[in-house]
Amino acid sequence: MADAEHPADNETHLKVGFTLAPDFTLLAFTGFIEPLRQAADVGDRSRPIWCSWSVMSHDLAPIKSSCGVQISPWETFRDPAEFDYIVLAGGLLDSLDQVSPALTDYMKEAVKKNVPVIGLCTASFILARAGLMDSRRCGVHWYHYQDFKNNFPGALPVIDELFVEDRGIITSPGGSATTDLALSIIEKYFGAERVMKTLRHMVLDWNRPIDHPQTPYMNDYQEITDPRVRRAVFYMEQNIAAVAATEDVAREVGVSTRQLERLFQVFLRDSPAGYFRKLRLRHANWLLHNTQRSITDIAIECGFSDSSHFAKRFREFFGHAPSQSR
User: Fold this and answer.
1) Cβ atoms of 140 and 108 closer than 8 Å
2) What string of DSSP letters covers 19-31?
3) Contacts of 237 (CB under 8 A, 6+ apart)
4) For the whole model, what pTM was predicted?
């Protein structure tokens, strides 16, 4: 029989194996492991009773994170079948070439043995390089979307979800989204009560649903329920400095120009071109408030042909000149 201290023998015990890429992002790792710690025990005693975890590598050399903090693996790679999940925390794209073949082989072994693999942050790039993401949907950070798409045309990158599961591989863009992913697994194994306990101890208000958008302007897109419109908006954000025609956006989303026009009118009450201009103006306003860059530089970065054209559009939208935003 289970009590507050010990689960019953027939109750689920969650076992997670962690692996870390060179220059991994610390938040991706801690954002996932900390909810496990909170869910694993009563109170804040940190005993791995309900959940257990291990940090593994091909050797026991410390692994440096992107911020310089080092983590020492606890053990060398163990049979992945001994875990319920194998988690890989990625990091700086410039360090992908430093990923050891042993780490890549371990991910392949886990997939071969049907052990669910979780890729955090840029781990999606590592898994794709290993050929594991071909024809799979893959959660990618919006900032790295174009890099991923250009390098791995066989994969299906997703940037309007906090995490994506496709045939045994779960990917998350990283950042705070790794906590949402961990909480969803905790709820799956232990139910909502243990999630609430974890949220309270971590001083979090709620665990966001899987389809919560990544975008920096996420509050604006809560009501966009059509995935084609979301993809169009994210494409615009990725190409904020480009003069992208509506035809280009429609081609990227996979719909006709006329259909895209209709979708934008239904969900955003605007044309694609008009909405794109608003995005660029809002980004310009943010730059005016938060940087000392010249108005001309900001105008060019935000896709306007010159500062006078930019100033005219800015005044129409905000009701004052760009200089007054400073």
Assistant:
1) no
2) EE-TTB-HHHHHH
3) 142, 215, 216, 279
4) 0.74
* Residue-by-residue DSSP string for 68-122: S-EE--SEEPPPGGGSSEEEEE-B-GGGGGG--HHHHHHHHHHHHTT--EEEETT
- Cα separations (Å) of 179 from 27, 127, 136, 185? 9, 20, 23, 10
How is residue 141 annotated by DSSP? -
pLDDT 10s digits, 36-77: 999 999 888 889 999 999 999 999 999 999 999 999 999 999
Task: Please give the Cα distance from 137 to 149 (Å, whole number).
Answer: 12
pLDDT higher than 80, residue 195:
yes
Match 């992208």 to its residue by tokens: 244
| All domains of the chain in start order, with CATH | 14-201 (3.40.50.880), 218-325 (1.10.10.60)
Chain segment 252-285, per-residue pLDDT in tens: 899 999 999 999 999 999 999 999 999 999 989 9
Residues whose CB falls within 8 Å of the CB of residue 263, separated by 6 or more in sequence, listed in order: 226, 228, 229, 232, 255
**pLDDT at 238 (0 to 100):** 78
